[in-house]
Amino acid sequence: MPVFVQNLQRSVSVNLYRLHHVADLFLACLRLQRFDVGVAFEETDVVRCLNGKYRGSNTATDVLSFPQKEILICHSLCHLIGYDHNNTHNWQLMVKRERSLLSCYNNAFGTALEPLTQCDED
After folding, report:
1. Contact 47/59 with Cβ under 8 angstroms?
2. Which 3-state string (H, E, C) describes the chain?
3. Biggest distance spanned by C-alpha atoms of the chain
């Protein structure tokens, strides 16, 4: 049961190590042995944008949940082939590659997946 925890914001201190273990504990308590979890902490404006895009509500919220196996694989593969998001330019290049990969996936499976780390404004 892989757990992926990422802090993409700077407003609040986050102990990623502890949160990773908390997620592991909850999954074990729920007896979910074949369940992947990805947790990303984002800035309020990004959460508001994603909430508007995916739920039609232009407000911030505390939690947004997405099925992300395909998106996580896409994101991971981009890292493995050398893409990174350590600055705005590299992030834009990586999102462009993710869009390209997800477009292939969407065409093959009739879905409409997009990278989760982008907004309409980019």
Report:
1. no
2. CCEEEEECCCCCCCCHHHHHHHHHHHHHHCCCCCCCEEEEECCHHHHHHHHHHHHCCCCCCCCCCCCCHHHHHHHHHHHHCCCCCCCHHHHHHHHHHHHHHHHHHHHHHCCCCCCCCCCCCC
3. 42
Please work out, in degrees rounded to the nearest 5, the angle formed at the alpha carbon of residue 113 by the alpha carbons of 44 and 117.
30
List pLDDT tens digits, range 15-27: 999 988 888 888 8
Q: What are the φ and ψ backbone dihedral angles of 7, each rounded to 5 degrees? A: -105, 110
CB-based contact 72:3 (threshold 8 Å): no
- What's the token pair of residue 121? 């404004």
- Cα 25 from Cα 7, distance rounded (Å): 20
Overall pTM > 0.90: no
Copy the structure tokens of residue 73: 């694989």
CA–CA distance, 88 with 91 (Å, rounded to integer): 5
